[in-house]
Amino acid sequence: MEIPYEVTPRRDTGLYNAKLGVWLFLASEVMLFGGLFSAYVFLRMGVQPGVDNPWPWGVSVHKNFVWLGAINTIVLIASSVGVVFAWVALKERNWRRYQIYMYFVVACAVIFMCIKSVEYNSKLTKHHGIKLVDNSVMEGVIKDKTDQVRFSGDKLTFSLQGAVPAVLSDFTDESFPAFKVTEGPEELVGNEIKSASEFKSWFAKGRRLAFEKLTEERKRYRGELASGKGNPTPVSVSSSVTLVSSAPFAVSGNPRKLIGHNETTMNYRDAVRVEGKLVSDDVMFEVHEVDLQLVVPTKQPESIVWSVINDKEAKKHFFDLKEKKYNELIAYYEKHGGVVPEAQLRGRYLNVQYVHVAAEGHGEEHGEAKHGEVHASEPKESAGGGESEGHHGPSRVIQVPRDQIKFMSNHGPRYGTYYAIYFTMTALHGLHVVGGALVLLFFAVFGKKLYLKNPEHLANRVEVGGLFWHFVDLIWIFLFPIMYLL
Amino acid sequence: MADASHDLSKTKKSYAAVGIALLVFTVVTVTIGLAPIFDMGPPGPDAMDFVLGLSVAAVKASLVALIFMHLNHEKGLIYKILLFTFLFFLGLMILTIFADTDPILEQFETLKTTRGWLMDKPR
Q1: Which 320-379 residues of chain A touch chain B by CB within 8 A?
Q2: Which of A184, A237, A419, B5 has its CB 3.0 to 4.6 Å from that of A241, i.e. a possible disulfide?
Q3: For A203-224, what is each residue's pLDDT tens digit?
Q4: Contacts of residue B1 in chain A, CB cutoff 8 Å?
Q5: What is the reported pTM?
C-alpha cells in the first residue's frame, strides 16, 4: 500500500505528513516537560528556609556531578550535529557517510546513558545523608552497610501466614542456621530446617496446615451456631511458631523492614520477632559536610552533631568558614545597602560547610602518619573535599548512635524534593534519549532498502527522527543548568 | 543541481558553526555556574543568577531550534502549532507565580507580593 505525501508535500499544509506529525508530537512533549519544569519551580520556591528539607543549590554539592553533566551536554550537542550531518549526507546520496554519522549519534547516546548511570550510581550508593534528632544534617558516606542493625539471633517467632518472613534475606552467615521448631502446631514441633529452600517449603507447608485448621474451626463454629446452643466457642487458631537455632546466627536488619529493636529483640514489619543479642546498631559514617540549615543559628554551637562528630577542630573549622562567609555577605550588603535577608542567614551559603574530622583521638588505625600519606596520595578522593580550605583526604569514620538519628538515606528521590524532581526529570529525559537512539539506530541499520528505493523518503525519515533528537538535546540544555549549576 | 550542492555545502558550514557555538556556550554556562565572579547579586543563588544562566540556555535552545530543527525557514502551519504550544507553555510558567503567594493569607495581595518576583526579597 502506498501511503501518500511521504516524500512530496501536501498542497494544503505544504509539508510531508511525517513532519507535521512529529511537530504535533513535539508540541505535546513540550507540554509534558513544561509541566515538570513548572513543578520544579513550585518545589524550589516552596522550600521554606529553616523549615523544609533544604534545596542543595549550586556546585558546592554537585561538584563531582557538574563535570559529568557538562560532558553529557557536549556529547548530546555532538550527537545533534551528527544527525544533521547524516541528513545532509543522505541529501548528497552518500550512504557510507550517512551510516557513519548515524552510528556516531547512537554511540553518543550510549555514552550519554553510561555517564548518566555513573551519576545515578554515585548518588544512590556513594552519597548518604543522616539527619539527627535536632535536624542537623551530616552529608557523607555510610560505611560497610552499617545502616543495618547487626544482631546475633538464636530464636525466631512468627506467624504462619502471608509471605515468607523477610528476615530470611537478612541472614549474613555463609551457611544457613540450623533451626528446630520448638513451639507451634503440634504437627510441626520438632521439625528441622537446614537451608533457605527447605525453610520456604516448610513455611508453605505450615501455612497450608494453619489454613486447614482455620477452615476446620470455622466449620465447627458454624455448626455450633446452627445448632442454636447459645454462644458458640469463638474461632481460635494459633498459627504462631517459634524456631530455635542450635548456634547463634548473624542477622543484618534492614532498617526499612524493621519496626524497632532493642538489646534482646528485633521486630520486623511482617511480625517476625528475632530474639538474641544486639551486636551493634551504630552507624559508621564518613562526614564530608555538616548542614545546619534546619537548626536555629543561636543553637548551632550546641547542636548534637558536634557531640557526635566529637572533634573540636572540625567544629571550629565549620564556624570559621561560616564567619568568613558571613563577613562576605555583610560586606556585600554594606556596599549595596540593605540588611542581610533572613533567607540568606538561614540558607545554605552560611549553614552548610565542609567538615573534615581529623584522625587523631579515637581512630587508632588511621594514625596521623597514615592520614598524611592518604592526604598526599589521593587528595581529591573525598566526595565533598573540593573546597579550597585545604581539608582534603577522607575524614575519619565516626560512630553515630542510632537513637540520635531521625532519618538517613542515600541521595535517592526520597532524600528531598530536589532529588525527587532531579530523578523524575533526568530519568524521563533519559528514556527519551533511549527511544530516540533506537529509532535512529533502526534507520541506520535497516535503511538501505528504502535508500535504494527512494533516498528522499529516508532523508525525510531521518529529518523527522532528527527533529525529535534535537528536541531531546534542547530539553537537556535547560536541565543541565537548573539541575547542576544554579 | 550545482546550485543544490552549493546550498548543501553552505548548510553544512552553518551546522558546523552552530555546533561550535553550542560547545562554546556550554563552556560559558559552566563558567557562569562555577566562577564566583559571575555570581550576580549577593553570594549564593538569586534571581539574577537564574536570569543569566537561563538566558544562555535560551540562546543555545534557539540555535538548536532555528538551525538544527529548521525553524528559520519552515511552513506556516508549524508556526501556528508552535504558537499554541508556546501559549500553553507560557501558561504553565505563569502558574508558577502562585508559588510565591500564600493563597489563604495573601489572596488579595497577589500583586503586592509578586511585584518583587525578579528581585531578591526577604521571605
Answers
A1: 325, 328-329, 332-333, 336, 340-344, 347-349
A2: A184
A3: 999 999 999 999 999 999 999 8
A4: none
A5: 0.83
B11-35 pLDDT, tens per residue? 999 999 999 999 999 999 888 888 7
Chain B residues 5-44 within an 8 A CB cutoff of chain A = 5, 8, 11-12, 15-16, 18-19, 22-23, 26, 29-30, 32-34, 42-44
Largest alpha-carbon pair distance within chain B? 70
Mean pLDDT of chain A: 87
| B6 pLDDT more than 80 | no
Mean pLDDT of A48-75: 77
Q: What is the CATH number of domain A17-127+414-485?
A: 1.20.120.80
Burial zone of A208 (CB within 10 Å; 0-12 exposed, 13-18 middle, 19+ buried) = exposed
ipTM over 0.90: no
Residue intervals in chain A for CATH 1.20.120.80: 17-127+414-485
pLDDT band (50, 70, 90) for residue B103: low
Of residues A344 and B75, more confidence is placed in B75
Q: Do B93 and A31 touch (CB under 8 A)?
A: no
- How many residues comprise chain B? 123
Tell me which of A139 and A344 has the higher pLDDT: A139
Which comes out higher in pLDDT, residue A57 or A463?
A463
Mean pLDDT along residues A302-306 = 93
Which one is predicted more confidently, A61 or A70?
A70
Q: What is the pLDDT of residue A13?
A: 87
CB contact under 8 A, B89 and A31: yes
Neighbours of A247 (CB within 10 A): 10
Q: What is the 3-state secondary structure (H, E, C) of chain A?
A: CCCCCCCCCCCCCCCCHHHHHHHHHHHHHHHHHHHHHHHHHHHHHCCCCCCCCCCCCHHHHHHHHHHHHHHHHHHHHHHHHHHHHHHHHHHCCCHHHHHHHHHHHHHHHHHHHHHHHHHHHHHHHHCEEEEECCCCEEEEEECCCCCCEEEEEEEEEEECCCCCCHHHHHECCCCCCCEEEEECCCCCCCCEECCHHHHHHHHHHHHHHHHHHHHHHHHHHHHHHHHCCCCCCCCCCCCEEEEEEEEEEEEEECCCCEEEECCCEEEECCCCEEEEEEEECCEEEEEEEEECCCCCHHHHHHCHHHHHHCCHHHHHHHHHHHHHHHHHHHHHHHHHCCCCCHHHHHCHHHHEEECCCCCCCCCCCCCHHHHHHHHHHCCCCCCCCCCCCCCCCCCCEEEECHHHEEEEEECCHHHCHHHHHHHHHHHHHHHHHHHHHHHHHHHHHHCHHHHHHCHHHHHHHHHHHHHHHHHHHHHHHHHHHHHHHC
The Cα–Cα gap between A318 and A355 comes to 6
Task: Please tell me which of the candidates A30, A91, A332 has its beta carbon nearest to residue B8.
Answer: A91
Residues of B with Cβ-Cβ distance to A340 under 8 angstroms: 42
pLDDT band at A57 (very low <50, low <70, confident <90, very high): low
Chain centre distance of CA A193: 37
**Is residue B84 within 8 Å of residue B35, measured between CB atoms?**
no
How far is residue A441's CA from residue A79's CA, in Å, rounded to a whole number?
13
